[in-house]
Request: fold
Amino acid sequence: MDFTCSKQDVLDFWEDMPFDLQIPEHQGNCVDCHKKSNKKLALVYKETPKVFNFTAYLDNQYSEVKAQVLDGNLIPRKRFRGYKNTKELIASFDLSDHNPKDYSEESGGCSESCEAFMDSNEPESETIL
Reply:
């Protein structure tokens, strides 16, 4: 069973509701998603830095769980694009140059799909390409 949905599916669902949550796109579900562009994540951090406390906690507690394989070596998990953990991601932000109206993506991103409810029978990749 495929539970993925596109960004358009989500927008279509909420368009039919009798109310609007008025949440800016970059602050929407899931606010710190690893599929969001670095531009969106930087804007989220600029507005609400505490959002990243939980991902930093996960980095500290669980980066060695189910470690990944790269060139035959086990390496810690890192959640964000460019193989960055939360601390590295935040350090990469240029907070002086963010336009809240610019939602352009570097590539892909949360506009593609959300696999939050992916079928557990599907295999997971253990290798970083």
